[in-house]
Amino acid sequence: xxxxxxxxxxxxxxxxxxxxxxxxxxxxxxxxxxxxxxxxxxxxxxxxxxxxxxxxxxxxxxxxxxxxxxxxxxxxxxxxxxxxxxxxxxxx
Length: 92
What we know:
Blueprint: H1 27-36, E1 44-45, E2 50-51, E3 56-57, E4 62-63, E5 68-69, E6 74-75, E7 80-81, E8 86-87
């Protein structure tokens, strides 16, 4: 998250090779924006997060500081895991 670029208004022709994330907290608004974006989506995972190598994080997701995601977890696309969240084993 430390070196993530923040874009103001979305324009499909600006840096089309870059992967984006949409980190708006309102789920409905985030979904509407995701459906309009033409770029590929990446992930933003804070370096203090602890993720099992057996967990899956969906594209477009944001993982904030001190999050723990345990083994067997599947985090969906465009999910925001806020600071200190703990996702226990085999959760979807």
